[in-house]
């Protein structure tokens, strides 16, 4: 029996259902934000499945959770696969979780088929990919790859002021795993991440497998505006320093400056805060986040300059700043891994197409360390970052079949 033949669609689907109970929301999605009690529960559940199989689990100083299946050469650098188990506040049950469960399914399928690989295989659940609670996102993989410093990330605070180091300590207390010595990062020989597409192309083109060639670049910013609190009923317009009014002027100009003709640039203001948040007080502070993405770094650079100019020009009479929080350049995946994914999809008689990724993934950081690639499967109407996100059991299993074949080939290099 091949690894692909040993993939069990029902088991993989059931594991998604079991995980979806942890932080489950009424609309069928999940709220399992990074380093929350729900995240800890998911870690425990994955660890319990791993232990039952006799796989080894361990963690690192940023809380990435690893599940290792030994190869015949214990000294060979492992091949890794996985994604993330944290979610958006109103997230779906497949974003990230699919990549973790598909990797775990691959390890189990090889076990069931009695296949031993030369290199060890490691399934990974990276810490805080979403970046909705703690910024930046893809944090665990960024620290693993040396893109961000561990100390800087441990000091990050969430929107309520909770320090990441404390949330991580709490998580590891509730969901313990043996700690690997030293700072995060160890040699790996290859990395492949499975994920739902999170866009509509595969469904529209009636393809089962997306052979991912690249990830577009992304940058995040925070704009902070300082106004002056004043009485809403008595303060004339000329005397007001209304932080929210300045925010709306800045935002409107930014939307206009980022509307490109071919609809390639992605610009999102996803979080706005106004203080003190009283209906009859002129806002004294306003802040908003910006998420901007494009396949070409030069275009992001050019638009960053425009955003800065807008803040300088439109904030008066309120002082305002724009701070870049993340900058991840575009990623090109390894041509050999891309070919391997395409060839395995072909061999399994699965329809496929090459495509870049609009969303960010942990693979963008790990691609700096070793040959890397990704496998996409369709999701309903392309909807993601939404509780109603959905995918079919057979598409998920198809992606896992391609994954196990790709991992086996890489692990026997
Ligand atoms: C990941 O969720 C992203 O924002 O691309
Ligand atoms: Mn994801
Ligand atoms: Mn996501």
Task: Provide structural commentary.
The strands form 3 sheets. Strands 1, 2, 3, 4, 5, 6, 14, 15 and 16 form a 9-stranded mixed sheet that branches. The protein contains 12 helices and 16 strands. β3, α3 and β4 form a beta-alpha-beta unit. α3 crosses α12. The chain is α+β, with helices and mostly antiparallel strands. Glyoxylic acid binds next to loops.
Percentage of residues assigned to helices? 25-40%
Q: How many strands? A: 16
Order of helices and strands: HHEEEHEHHHEHEEEHEEEEHEEHEHEH
Distance between the termini: 21 Å
Strand content: 15-25%
Distinct bound molecules: glyoxylic acid, manganese (II) ion
Uncertain runs with pLDDT below 50, 5 residues or more?
A: none
Compute the average pLDDT: 97
How many H/I helical runs?
A: 12
Q: What would you call the shape?
A: globular
Major pleated sheet: 9 strands, mixed
Q: What class would the helix/strand composition place it in?
A: alpha+beta
Cα Rg: 22 Å
